[in-house]
Amino acid sequence: MKQIVRLGLWVSVSCVALAIACGGGTNTKPIELDYGADTPIQEVVDAVTEAGEGTRDLEELEPIPHRFEILLLHDTSIPSSAMPGDTFKVRAKVVDYAQGIPAIGMNVHYAITKVQDLDGNTADEFDGSFESEDTQTVSPDGVAVNGFRTNLACGLKYTFELSLPDDDAEPKSLELNVPCAACGCANVKLTYEGALPESALVDINVYVLPEDYTCDLLGAATSVPTDAVLADRTIGNLYGTTSFDCLPAGSYYTLFAQGHRAGSECVVTAGCNEGMFLKPDSCTDQSLKMYLATLNPTGQYDCIDHFDFTNMVKQCAGGDTTLISCATGVTDLGKTVCCVLSEMIKFFTNPGLTLIETIQSLASQWIGSLIVDTVFNLFKDAVAKIVTQWILNSSPPFLQDFFRIGGDMIETITNLEMMSNLRLSKLNNDYSMQGDQYWHGLALYWKFGCDPADPNYDSCGRIPLDLEALNDPLFPTSLLGGKFTSILADFDKLIINQHAIKLNYGKLVLYVLNEVIIAGITGGKAHSLLEVAHLWLNCKTIAAGILGDIASVFGGTQQQIEDICVTGVDFVVGFAVSWIDNLSLDTEMSINGQARMLDPNCDLKVDQITNGMNTGFIQGNASQAAITGDFECVRQGYVVPVP
User: Fold this and answer.
1) Is 642 within the bounds of a domain?
2) I want to staple 114 with a disulfide (CB 3.0 to 4.6 A). Which of 159, 339, 447, 628 is the partner?
3) Overall pTM > 0.70
């Protein structure tokens, strides 16, 4: 009643004031107001405030200082709570007052402003963290959500602050209690299933994660979510064990592990157990099975192959030969050509022995093999050595150049660098895959004139030939490629099964010799070995030298030595040119190989194939001979890091 009386007095006063302000007459009798000692003015103001409760005062009606406002979608009257190892979702809504709608696409920043123990003391150590520093509000409600991982530390109270950039809204704070729970423990041992030896796997990192990290999200190629890791251990090898002594009990966890190959940073094995439940004050035994990861070799690669045909030439020629035996003692055409190639190699690397053996063979037809062989066997090797040293080191410069160039020519045609495209198909369940390889270019190395002391000596004299762009009717176009099956073994070993490749080696050799090397070094004056031999090699001068002195051994003359020299050169060079093209008769290269696959960026996708080794043979009409080679491949589009 007292409050009503006071309010009535306030209204009366207001009415009197209003009457005066509106020009009321002076006949109004003044009213005397007696507030009394127990009704101070402040109580009147209080009464007005109570009567107008729910309305906004003058200060509230002033313009809002911020356009945006952050509304925490939590009961902030008391701190929120989460157990160790949990993820607490911090939710907030942002309102745009200028438009009167939820704010969409706003960045909300999260910060830990204070950490205390439950007694209010500042905590020096804590391990809780937000999943991200900022999140965006999303449509249609303008709500932003961020996870706070409590991890292992307990008995703490966190204070968070949420803010907008550029102080677009007043920051808001939220408190979170993380009480302690009883501990549980886990003993972990490893088992393994895979092709790599157990001793090759080392440094197995074992992680305890919250249960929402399920095994279908984790694997050898998965980046470990470090912010979510509750505890981790490292086991040196597959035979080791480890323990997690104190994890909050009464919760489910995911146990995850990744292992490495010795000497590599890449993960090659992984294991995962879901639903690991820890009871208070007790231990659980966990057997974590590790599985070997699978490399993915599927894709296209650029390859460089090197083939060495030296052993092929020697083998298909039948071992040690002479020019005469090549011409008279071999019936298989392909083998005859190999025989001649073998003699060409011997001629340019040991010319003295070739000439001495030719002289011996021809002389035996004039004098008799018994006498000639008896005499020649006494001094053949010694004289051959002297002749070779004289020809290669002391003969006229033009003769030395011929044999030096000839030696380079033989090196060029017996060692080929070939470029190809390699394609590997999808890996099957049995680790097999189909593949094909297409050769599109080759490179020859013509080292004549290159300085071995030059830092670029390895690439000096390289002559690339693009088979697709080369428009020359003389070039053999039967160099194609082949299909094959292959197997992925021991995690990173590529095994390529036997397969055939069309290779017209004889015609290829002839083209390289005649149209690339000989035509180049003679300025186009010669296009065959025989032409260049007659252009540079002077048997008269040779006969006047040391070989003329040898003639007296069996009563010969200088002219006879000159004739034998010419005959020998014709046998070695002319006979080779006449028959070498016959290797084009239905020859093919049959090879198999193996290599190691590399994953430099640890994404379990093969980027390089290295240490490749090929073995096989060239198959002719009635004979075959071994060849060897090596290869390296790089995935198309991958850039090999510079060491």
Assistant:
1) no
2) 159
3) no
